[in-house]
Amino acid sequence: MTAPPADTGRMTIQGLLDEALMSGARVVAGTDRLGMELSWVLPLNEVLSQHDPLDAVAVYTRPESLTANGAALSALAARGATTLLVDGVVPPDLGPVPDRLVIVELGIPVGFAALNRLLAERALSQEVHVMRYSTQVHASLAGLFHRGAGLQILIREVANLARNPAVALDARGQVVAHHGLAPEMLAPLSDSINAMVTAGIPAAERRSDGHDTRVQQITGPNETAWTGVASAIRLGKTFEGWVAILAPDPAPGSHDLARYEVLTEQATAIVGSEMLRQRSVDEAEERARGDFVQALVHGSFSSEHDMRARAEHHDIELDARFAVFVAPGVLPRRVDNPTASMVRLARYAAGLAPHPSVHAYVTVIGDVLVVVRTLRAEEITEMRREMAEYAQAMSLELERRRGLRAPVAYGRPARGAGEVRESYREARVALGIARRLHRTGATSYQELRGFTVLAEVTETEPSRQLVREVLGPLRSGPDLLETLGAYLAEGGNVNATARALNVHRNTMLAKLDRISRVLGMDIRLPENQFTVWLAIRLDLLDEVHSAIDREASFR
Questions:
Q1: Is the pTM of this model over 0.70?
Q2: Alpha carbon distance 150, 275 (integer Å)
Q3: Where are its TM segments located (predicted)?
Q4: Tens digit of pLDDT for each residue in 103-122?
């Protein structure tokens, strides 16, 4: 491979003085600033007629022109000019020289054209050299990428080219690949590099070449001084992370820094593409696993062999003990991809209470998060306790991430994959009831025993007839069913119901009289209240069951 750019390759004032063309030149002022960079040379008369910045620019003049424009030296220095090249003897009456300006007196006449050609050749030569090195670095990494080497191999190649450790960070600042760092060194260095890349940069210090590259001294293990060089990974308008080289030297040479910058900048596109490819593979695998989980909770495999073959592919033990947890996938704000956001929520929930022997599988069905989790406990009492603890932790985690309280429901434990379908159905019934009753937190199917008993008769004809006869007439009038529901929820207390509905007590009594007339029975009597309560519960269960059946049939 072509040697990397040497000493940044940029022309400096000292480098210009070392050229044969400048033999006999004498530094009149600014001998302590000979290491400053020079990129171009312009004649004095052209410079004075414009007002552009003169950073890294040398100004050429003849002695007679300088005599006529001696007062312009301060203006040149203020505009950033580094050097004044006098093609002849500097006038003795030049006056005070600005501290930031180097003045060079040429021993023999050189002429502007020769100086201009010299600097142009050096600048173009350096650009070509950097471009050639960049192209070869890119080709080396691209060759590995196209052979499917993977992220770790790409970062290893970056580290080998840099002859120093290298890391790749994702958009959240997590290390996704590294090479050349011992485990005990990774944590402090990743923290330091994260602090470096997350710090803001003033607009005046941002680079104009499109690369977001940071070079900064960072703190390594045991408070040692390192130098970090990091370039941002951007694919289109999307920020994907960083590629960084870590040098165990507080002040590496300019040659090395230039080499590290080229490496990180060329690596960003290749490493970013591999990160994007790997994420696509992970998402595809997660979708396939989610499809399996959906088939598992719906019991929709074509055969036992189909279920076991797919379970083996996803490394899922079908004979384990399972618990099914469901929660509404309500997001705190509108997002571009709600399904992906809900999957992330479910993934966060699945990562709670980790244990080496416990596995969790997630999916999203409609607007519901589903987590199927294996259980460690063997006894039914211990399994219920384990499920309750996890459901409570999941509820708190979802509330923390969304800022909204919501129920997390679960059914009875399933012994083997064959019972997962029923456990899921119980969890969905419990969730449907909890949502309609505005319950939050952990809710088990067992806690709703009154509903679970009624669930056995919900779909019978006598049940449907009771719902039609009791609730049908109430649906014909405005607010009658809601008023009656509030009345029953307050235990038949007229005053409490009036306060809950924010109406006058007399208005409440009038509404109860109207409801009694519509139903043909005195709603104030306890046995009639029980009949209506039963009809409302049966209707609620029927709605929940219908929603679950629609979901299963849609699949």
A1: no
A2: 9
A3: none
A4: 888 878 888 888 888 888 77
